[in-house]
Automatic annotation (TrEMBL):
The lineage of its organism: Bacteria, Bacillati, Actinomycetota, Actinomycetes, Micrococcales. PANTHER family: ALANINE--GLYOXYLATE AMINOTRANSFERASE 2-LIKE (PTHR45688:SF13), PTHR45688. Residues 1-32 are annotated as: Disordered. The keyword Membrane does not apply. InterPro entries: Aminotrans_3 (IPR005814), Aminotrans_3_PPA_site (IPR049704), PyrdxlP-dep_Trfase (IPR015424), PyrdxlP-dep_Trfase_major (IPR015421), PyrdxlP-dep_Trfase_small (IPR015422). This is 4-aminobutyrate aminotransferase-like enzyme.
Length: 454
């Protein structure tokens, strides 16, 4: 029997979740103009129900710069959520690189071109051995799909372990390991769900590592008992959809040891934590591990269509010996130009250091404000990826409070969202160019909303 997103976890939690927290439902949006209501009606008519909008009152953006969006009236919205334009909206270096390359050459990947080789060498130099090769695709979902194919081919297995509220993409294969897509998204028997460490309601320290490891062992044993050969485990290195679960350090390294001992591969999904988001190049490094495969996505091209799977020659050779894989435009010259410009921006503007420093200051400010609120159980994060968890008395999750803060900040033209297995964690994830003035503006708005919430 297939599992779905309502499956009971080790924590005993149950219940159907909405398809998307913080989604516009059309029932209450008093600030929308007639023109915006008509645009939404046209959008729904031509794009259909799967396309969702954020916020009780959607944002109608017409231009953007750095960490800011602007509507038709010129009103400035502080973007504290969008990680795709990693080096800032409308980045001039990326824009110039794309424009120049588009006017020179943009063709498929079966021709010999210099740029993709140069970039692959530069990118893989940022990874520890033996991760020295890259396969490019166009989207993170495609890269996840490919990583699963590689893992299953080289191990001969099918069983994959994921976290309970994981999100890894929207292809058929990626959706099958993405329970956060909702209760209508079935999870097959070849996928096992484990609960992320819960620093608010669960044990901490070594006990949390032991508890998580026990779940991995049980999942592997469960596959064996059902006659499903084991292929591996894929985890977002900061468990963002599970509510940004970063502690205790080392729990993923222990999981990787168990996975490999059972003949599986460990896949690090770096689409969200990668490229400096946590103050270091890759999220897996914080956990003290080197994955067998790493998956990269949208931020690597600042929104241009490019993604990658990073792996070892051994794995790629074993896969490529039996499978003909190519991606017509994965790693095309224009997307590669954008990706190179992103690395230039990160390195020359020292955005790793910047993300760490501004993120630390932002986290300290949020903790100071949270100290006066009984609704905030914990502030956690790394670099410019922060989570604020809302609970009732006794640690009972309070998703209504998280959503109220999301919309309260929206009213002040500050954009964030909420996530987590229990939908009660404020998710703060701005472009890496988010600066001190942006952080101060965020903290002012957050303090006001926190006082109003009580």
């Amino acid at each position: 029997m297939a599992q779905d997103a309502r499956d009971t976890g080790a924590t005993g939690t149950t219940g159907q979740r909405s398809v998307m927290v913080n989604g516009y439902d059309g029932s209450a949006a008093p600030g929308l103009s007639p023109a915006e209501r008509e645009l939404i009606a046209r959008r729904e008519r031509v794009l259909g129900r799967p396309y969702r909008l954020f916020y009780r009152e959607p944002v109608h953006a017409v231009r953007a710069s750095g960490a800011h969006l602007f509507d038709a009236s010129g009103a400035d919205f502080l973007d504290a959520y969008n990680n795709v334009p990693a080096v800032g909206h409308s980045n001039s270096r990326v824009q110039a690189a794309v424009s120049e390359q588009l006017g020179t050459l943009n063709t498929h990947t079966r021709y010999l071109t210099d740029g993709v080789v140069d970039y692959a060498e530069r990118l893989t130099d940022l990874f520890p051995a033996p991760l020295t090769q890259a396969i490019f695709a166009c989207t993170g979902s495609e890269a996840v799909d490919l990583a699963l194919r590689i893992a299953r081919r080289v191990t001969g297995g099918e069983g994959i372990i994921i976290t309970r509220n994981a999100y890894h993409g929207t292809t058929t294969a990626a959706a099958a390991i993405s329970p956060s897509l909702g209760s209508g998204n079935p999870i097959p028997d070849t996928v096992a769900l484990v609960d992320a460490p819960d620093s608010v309601r669960g044990p901490g320290g070594a006990a949390a590592v032991t508890e998580f490891a026990a779940q991995i062992s049980a999942a592997i044993a469960g596959f064996a008992a059902r006659g499903i050969p084991f292929a591996g485990m894929i985890v977002d290195s900061v468990l963002s959809s599970d509510g940004l679960r970063l502690a205790p350090l080392g729990f993923l390294a222990r999981a990787a040891e168990l996975v490999r001992a059972a003949g599986g591969l460990y896949i690090a999904d770096e689409v969200q934590p990668g490229f400096g988001r946590t103050g270091s190049w890759w999220g897996f490094g914080r956990q003290g591990l080197v994955p067998d495969l790493a998956v990269l996505g949208k931020p690597m091209g600042n929104g241009m269509p490019i993604s990658a799977v990073i792996g070892s020659p051994e794995l790629f050779d074993r896969f490529g010996a039996e499978v003909r894989y190519f991606n017509t435009f994965g790693g095309n010259p224009v997307s590669i130009a954008a990706a190179n410009a992103v690395l230039d921006e990160i390195e020359q503007r020292e955005l790793l250091t910047h993300a760490g420093a501004v993120g630390d200051a932002l986290a300290a400010g949020i903790r100071g404000i949270a100290a006066g609120s009984e609704r905030i159980a914990e502030v956690r994060g790394a670099g410019l990826f922060l989570g604020v968890e809302y609970t009732h008395e006794g640690g009972v999750p309070d998703p209504a409070a998280a959503l109220a803060v999301v919309n309260g900040l929206r009213e002040r033209r500050i954009l964030v969202s909420a996530s987590g297995t229990l939908e009660n964690v404020l998710k703060i994830r701005p472009p890496l160019v988010f600066d001190t003035a942006d952080a101060e503006r965020f903290l002012t708005g957050f303090a006001e909303v926190t006082r109003e919430l009580g």
